[in-house]
Amino acid sequence: MTRRWSRPDWQVAALTVSLGVTALVFDGALLAADDRPLLDGFGPLAWASALLVMFALTEGFAIHVRVRRGGHAMSITEIPMVIGLTMLNPLMVVLARTVGAAAGLAILRHQRGRKLAFNIAQISLQATVGIAVFGALGDPADGMNGPRDWLAAYAAMLAADLLAIILLTAVISLHDDPSEWRRLPSAMKGLGLVLIATSIALISAIAIQSSPYTVAILAVLYGVVHVAYRGYVRQSLGNEQVENLYAFTGVLDSSQDTDRLTRMVLEQVRDELRSSDVELILPPDATQPGMRIRLSGQGRIDQTMMYESAPDSWWGPAGAGELILLPADPSRTDGPVDAMAVPVPLGGEVTGVLLVTESLADIATFTAEHLRLLQAMANHAGVALANARLVDRLREEAVEKEHLALHDSLTGLPNRQHVYRLLDAALAAQPDTVTAVLLMDLDRFKEINDGLGHEVGDALLRVVGERLRDRLDGRGTVARLGGDEFAVLIQVTSPEDATALGGELARDLERPVHVDHLTLYARVSIGIALAPEHGRDSGTLLRRADVAMYAAKQARSGVRVYRASDDQNTPHRLALIGDLREAVDADRTLVVFQPKVDPATGTVVGAEALSRWEHPEHGFIAPDLFVPLAEHSGLIRPLTLHVLEIALRNCAVWRRTGHDLHVAVNLSPNTLSDDTLPEVITRLLAENGVPASALTLEITEGTLMADPDGGLVTLERLRRLGIKISIDDFGTGYSSLGRLRDLPIDEVKIDKSFVQKAAHDHHDQAFTRSIVQLGHALGLQVVAEGVEDEATYRHLAAIGCDVVQGYHVSRPLPVDEFTAWLRTTPAHRTAIGDLAVAQT
Q1: Per-residue model confidence as pLDDT tens digits over 395-417
Q2: Is 35 helix (H, G, I), strand (E, B) or coil?
Q3: For 255-403, which CATH class?
Q4: CA distance 765 to 772
Q5: Domain 579-727+776-794+802-839 is of which CATH architecture?
Q6: Rounded to whole angstroms, how far apart are CA atoms 159 and 201?
């Protein structure tokens, strides 16, 4: 029921009932307040009959003055009203006014249904209010014999017409346009004509009081005045229509946007033709469906797709060029009460239909004159809409061409040019946000393309694009840069998030791809560059992501974040290489030592020697930066020998002072390929008096993979000397646990990425436990690095890990500080964690 009363038709019906009830209540009050009889003899009856006819004629031949959606029915009903006020009982005047108006509206103006009911209720209340105002200000029983009665008549007629304007505005606001109230002041301009009609009425009433026979002369006068005024208003309306039509064409020329132009056409037609609803119907054609665009009285645009034309509907013939006029007929069930439809030429063979339905309350129904005006407006609108549709087509073609210029035709993804635009725009809009560029390249794609054909390669590329897009799910932008290169732009919170996303994408792309009867497996290398850390413009970020991608491909690491060491061509890098060369030649690099302890007893069993570089201008340079510089510039051998020499020299000192320690030194791939390395290490051991068993050389899995044959030969020679060999960062490379038995090693070192969360993450717990168990089964010692809290320390001790190192034990220390720390640290612990307590 609430939904029903929210509909405009029901609201207008409620307003109509309210007006009728209010009129009856006021009429009852008038009857009680006036002691004159309703009809007292033949004279009052004759006058009542004459007034009823006058009211019917004046209402039936009313002249309407429009104010956009609003309107005012101008008639000379003020004349019979004023005469009735002096001749009859007030209630009799209301009855004559109501019955006469109903007859004029129904018979002469052919109004029906809701429109007729509202107008009758409004006229009845209007008459009641006029009589009430006159009774309050004048003397109805005294006739029109003085200025007081004249002013009362003016006030009464103005009040009655003002009420009519307000009620008509209210019904249009409820049924059609809520903004109609803004035009109320404009509608009130017609009240000036009420004063003229009331003046004629007063003169007529005074004349009739002098001699009733003047009615005949006045009737002729009223007819002449009505005809003259009607002709004047018609001419004014005609001029206004011409001006409005001219303004309409000017409005159409001001816009070439189809949607905006369509709305303007519908609004202008609706207001000019005094309709409740207006529609523009565009027929379907071979390329696209049709459209039915409707503008309601409330100003709401509704669009409905039409996949078939509707030749059987009442407006169907208008599409073939016919003009359709349906006068008001409340009994019609197959269409609106009244309506018009005209063709709209849209160029070529395309013809739309413009139709209006449901005339407003201030006109009886649509006429042939309305139809001609609608046809003129449709012709102008057709030209403007045809031009706008042409402009839209050209605009769509331009947009399509721009899209093709900025997107890859195979996958539909943004291309390289578009990526530059998108990335620069993102960096400019959010300069402080971490933006990641992930650039990826399919490994061995050329083999697939050459061996299986370009169709299979294209299908693989499409699948890759779809998987990347599905994985991101709107969180970022996927692009194809060309060939088998793809890029992802996305905002992240940290480098770790970008690396984790890269791993997800790599795993997703490595799932089998089924193309026809083939099953393909794609492997991808991903390079990551982050803004603003690695660059603040699209060119720099994409170049550095490309550098990282090739580094990942070379190292077979899958995913790699850009490192300055990967980029071999930057001026800063070249300058650092020169400075590093000077530092290595002058022995200005620092060697620090990080303790290694047995977690079960707390015994300090050794130390790892690490190289550090304090640049005189740039300060501390991270090992991740300068060690790769040393590898690529040929400085890694002297740098490694320097670390070996310092490590063995200090190991000898510590062992002479009672600390039976071993030292560990990292070997790079380039160093491991040096055939003279075993002889050099043998000489250093002898010079410092350190047994070979006190030296551990750490190599990464990637080092072995870089030169597996040559690396194994060198390792075998070193191991025969009694030197221990350790696999560093175990778990991050390519080796499997089962392959450990085939390598000439003595120790595995679990990478810190698996150790740091081992106390809380059950996956890392299972991983570390498995390595410890298998390492022990193979007779290997197991070391864990990156131990940073007590819980991790206890977990590793509990699963039997042999040695641990990390910040929880101690940070890497210069040799003097390490020696001091060693003197203050007891050689043995009886409880797990005492070492950490001592450090705290």
Answers
A1: 777 777 777 778 888 888 998 88
A2: coil
A3: alpha beta
A4: 11
A5: Alpha-Beta Barrel (3.20)
A6: 16
